């Protein structure tokens, strides 16, 4: 089942249960996917769908940080609820240990020996972890492993 079909199914379920918060979030996600389809000019591949959902999640995460700094508890709760809805459409996120293992494997494969190889390792690791780990976590892990 494609992402658009999943979104439509969840949208109908939210309408039937009169869950306005979920309905609004799913509608935003569906619009983002449709806009991406229009921009690309074709149906999205699974990787492109994951990229759209990751971008939507990242936007909400950044907004959450700003709302917390500003003391906007009402917006913090709303954004957290939106993030939970978006998480349902993302692949399972890897733990820090699993990210470290992938980074270590990538370093071994590339023969990286120090921070001069950071770009190569980061690019290869992000390719392997696409949508499964936050870029900040991967960045910190690569830096820690290359500084050993």
From TrEMBL:
GO terms for molecular function: carbon-nitrogen ligase activity, with glutamine as amido-N-donor. Pfam families: YqeY. This is Glutaminyl-tRNA synthase b subunit.
